[in-house]
TrEMBL record:
Protein name: Uncharacterized protein
Provenance organism: Phormidesmis priestleyi ULC007
Amino acid sequence: MAELTCMVPIPTTLQEIDEAVRKFQVSDLDGSDLYCQWQAIRDASLEQLAIETDKNPVAGGDSY
């Protein structure tokens, strides 16, 4: 099976993610275009989550 190559830019700020989600919701994409847009939003969201998690560590969180 061929690997899918996505050329969609990944948002880097929360504002860019919000804008990408709004565009995604009103878009008429399907197939690989739809998947690539979704994946870019997902990757950006996970990256933001990692950044926010590093900023606010929970005291004792590493003891679990």
